[in-house]
Amino acid sequence: MSTIASGEFWAFVGVVAGIYTLLGLGIQLEFGFAGLLNFGHVAFMAIGAYTMAIVVVKLGWSMWIGAPLAILTAAAAGVAVGLPTLRLRADYFAIVTIAFSEIVRYVATNEERLTGGTQGTINLAGAGEASSYNGQWERFQGWLQSTLHLGSKDVTMLIVVWVAALAGCTALWAAGRTPWGRVLRGIREDEDAVASLGKNVFAFRLQALAIGSGLAGLAGCFYAWQFSFFSPNDFAPLLTFFAWMIVILGGLGRFFAVPVGAVVFGVLFAGTRFFDFAPFSWFDSAERAYLRLMVIGLAIIGLILFRPQGLLGRREELVLE
Amino acid sequence: MFLQLVANGLVTGAVLAIAAVGVSLIYGILGLVNFAYGDVMTFGAFVAVLCNGRLGMGMVVAAVLAMVSTAILSLSLEGVLWRPLRARRAGFMSLFLASIGLALVLRQAIFLVAGPQPRSYDVDPYKVYVLGSVRLSGAQAIAVTVAAAAIVAVALVLGTTSVGRTMRAVADDRALAAVAGIDTGRVIVLTWILCGLIAGLAGVLAALVQSSFDPNFGFSLLLPVFAAVLLGGIGSASGALFGGLLLGLATEVSTWAGFHGGVNPIYKPVVAFAVLIAVLLVRPQGLLGRARTL
Amino acid sequence: MSTLLEVNGVVRSFGGIHAVDGASFDVEQGSITSLIGPNGAGKSTLFNVVSGFLRPESGRVVLDGRRIDRRPPYAIARGGLVRTFQTPRALGRMTVRENVLIAAPQHPGERLPQTILRPRRVRGRERSARARADELLTLVGLENHADALASTLSGGQRKLLDFARALMTGPRLLLLDEPMAGVSPTLRVQLLQHVLELRERNGVTFLIVEHDLDLVMRVSDVVVVMNEGRVIASGRPAAVSADPRVVDAYLGARP
């Protein structure tokens, strides 16, 4: 193997895993608990990221306002999407949500004045001016780093993201154990039965969608801060599929399985970068990228065929049918 | 200008329609929302470009070879993936996710083998058919006529042959068909062959109309195809047809200047989705679909 | 006695066939009313219409003076009309106790703001709900399965679970869709006893679809007979069983 990269690289992998955990938590709530086939999840991440960036750059507001606003906007978007579509049957809902995520990507690409267009947020302040929404974040990060006597920027980011991710896990785990969570699980099992017992299935689903979308919005903010610049193509359906895969890998129905899936996936995906042996060595780096995605596709199929309950799930409680 | 848009719409719509019929049959008979369909279409398009470009064969031969190759691909996938999944009593969700994984594998494989650069078929780019105020390129004319012929052929197969009738019976009610003694195994094989052929043809036609295409093009076409299927009503082949034509027309015609300047052509896919959502709001089961039963 | 449920001229068709073709009958408060008729008479469809799972094309359904025929199922259930299903609908991947707990009416814990702001109130309600759930499970004889997943229950046990769950909601009118099918004879007797007790002590009204005519005639206050989408007779069991139209309907029923 070639040199296994420095701790910085793995810190970076950890940050991405943390961001994916936040995304995956939303999916775990929406599907693992409420049975919703939301395949447009990445759209809410995009909405969160763009809202935060736009608020900071174009309105000049503090990121401490921008981020909560981003989460609320993403959650509101979730409600807006859910209102007309939650009454559709599951397979229709899945496809309509993908369509929605593509629409968001389209709008972000074409509405240059609002989002900076295809070149991304570097364009937010208008052509010719390289803009950055990251100033406040870098300062906050620097302050945290020196206060906690941490070695590097990446480690600081790692800690912040994972504090958020684990807080999310805990909050959702607690919510899942409430009577509210019980109704959600009932809806996943048999929505007609639950309706016949007097529960407003639509309202519960809408709540799950709103919370899941808000979490995706938070993931979007962290994505924005981590990568400094982003463009619409960063939010392709592929990310939604990755998030789904992480949730299934960890095991559906358990919130604390999501970070496990994210870390395992992140390590494997990043680790394959260093495979210098055959068959990887036959290909150049551009081709290896294709190969790695192929491996991910095969892994998804393998998971479904051989271990649909994921790493931490139990066969009898198999949520994936 | 308006008629030109209508003509363009019919071309796009015809290609969408034939692809949508394939997707719809797979859903109706196999219960599978096949996310890999777009990439199977891409596969066909690339096989054709290999034959047509590299090997210098004519478009017709290339297209036929493409169709045969996608049919073989579909059958192999049935043996390697779908049948084992059905043996494990995989439900809708598992099949859907597996098809997403499969789509990823196919697309990356095509990238790997053929590379990311755009391709084109070896057809005369200057050939133009003029009908009144409407101009159709050679590619468009071929696409619409062949798609129309294919639609008619598929309709005849489904409507008049005994094979077609069995397929429709299984699509209608799989459990009942099995109880009634229909050899569902055979129907499944025939379905994959038919839908494989359709996918190959649709891929080649779509690539023709687009004039230049890369390995991503099938997947980007997949969403409008799904929209057409949902619009027509999932499980209804005639609905898929209708949905495809309607969406093709709607997206092209929406750019007409007469509609308050028309929709920005960049937003054409958005128009397709908007039409879909508008219809689903009023009729959640699609235009010709069956309402949800308790 | 006052009328609790009024079904008036309900029509509902599928693909051109009138499954329910102008059905009308009343259910008196505190009664056990049975709905019988040959297969295909439209009983299930009528149940679905009354409980809100299907919309009638015309006609009215009135519960305690208020129209419910275009309201969603959950709203009708909250209004006191709860139904069970012909094929039991157990929530498989949840425990038996959770299946009953989920039916607890007006539980503040089902609203997230309440859970966060008033956790003690939620906990208190959950405790009382749990006690009631265990009571009901004992009533139907499933107390030993309380912590097992509902998917491990047999068909007959699932029917009992459905029954317990429906009772948990504290209904005024309970629609039972073939409650005795698939249940052992001893259990049938027990179920029947529960029905009668619930009627006596809690004033619960019952509308039951049942094929066991013997049972129906013994226990019902009112028998409503449907055939081909319409109500052809309605009244006390003795009168109905002697009615020539009813005899005709059963003898002339499609095979």
Which helices and strands, and how do they pair?
The complex is a heterotrimer of chains A (321), B (294) and C (255).
Chain A: H1 7-33, H2 41-57, H3 63-85, H4 90-110, H5 112-115, H6 135-147, H7 153-176, H8 179-189, H9 191-196, H10 201-227, H11 237-250, H12 257-271, H13 285-306
Chain B: H1 2-30, H2 37-54, H3 59-87, H4 92-114, E1 128-131, E2 134-137, H5 138-160, H6 162-172, H7 174-179, H8 184-210, H9 217-232, H10 237-253, H11 268-282
Chain C: E1 3-14, E2 17-28, E3 32-36, H1 43-50, E4 58-63, E5 66-67, H2 73-78, E6 81-83, H3 96-101, H4 112-117, H5 119-139, H6 155-168, E7 173-177, H7 185-202, E8 205-209, H8 213-219, E9 222-227, E10 230-235, H9 237-242, H10 244-251
Parallel strand pairs in C: 3-8, 3-9, 6-7, 7-8
Antiparallel strand pairs in C: 1-2, 1-4, 4-5, 9-10
Q: What's the overall average pLDDT of chain A, rounded?
A: 87
Shape of chain A: globular
Largest chain interface and its two residue counts?
A-B, 42 and 43 residues
Class computed from helices, strands and strand pairing of chain A: mainly alpha
Number of strands of chain C: 10
Q: Give the helices and strands of chain C as they follow along the chain.
A: EEEHEEHEHHHHEHEHEEHH
Q: What can you tell me about this protein's structure?
A:
Chain A is mainly alpha-helical and 321 residues long. Chain A is built from 13 helices and no strands. In chain A, α1 runs parallel beside α7 (153-176), α1 packs across α12 (257-271) and α8 crosses α10 (201-227). The mean pLDDT of chain A is 87. The longest helix of chain B is centred in the first third of the chain and has 29 residues, at 2-30. The model of chain B has no long low-confidence stretch (mean pLDDT 87). The mean pLDDT of chain C is 89. In chain C, α7 links the parallel β7 (173-177) and β8. Chain C has 255 residues and is of the alpha/beta class. Chains in contact: A-B, A-C.
